[in-house]
Amino acid sequence: MGKVGEKMDVDFIVSTGDNFYDSGLIDEHDPAFFDSFTNVYTASSLQKQWYSVLGNHDYRGNAVAQLSPELRQRDNRWLCMRSFIVNAGSVFYIFNILGRFT
Fold first, then answer.
1. DSSP secondary-structure letter at 3?
2. What are the strands of the beta sheet with 78-80, ordered from one edge?
3. Choosing a second label site near 92 at 20 to 30 A (CA), which of 7, 68, 84, 85?
4. Which residues have C-beta within 8 Å of that of residue 75, sequence separation ≥ 6?
């Protein structure tokens, strides 16, 4: 994903849900936030704003924890809200399918 981000010179990343497999986060202090986000998306091209929405697996845990501003304080790339309006000229969707199976 980092190589694609570099090649496309992305301005931001949209995460389309199922951010924390298999059962979302327990709370704002769940180590899964670092294990599945901060410590995974380390490529320099991915050090951009992330706009994240919730998927069905996220609702299996504490969905409100992902909406917490406390997570944004821990990693300023993270922004998860109930809805977004993003003003962008072109948007390309890149799905990280392989990461789900490793």
1. H
2. 12-15, 49-52, 78-80
3. 68
4. 33, 34, 37, 38
Token pair of 22, please? Answer: 């298999």
Q: How would residue 82 be classed by pLDDT, with cut points 50, 70 and 90?
A: confident
Instruction: Give the closest residue to 100 by CA, choosing from 6, 1, 4.
Output: 1
Which amino acid, 95?
Answer: F
pTM of the model: 0.78
Written as six digits, the tokens of 16 are 């389309």
* Length, in residues, of the chain: 102
Summary count for the chain: helices (H), strands (E): 4, 3
- Cα 36 to Cα 57: distance, rounded to the nearest angstrom: 14
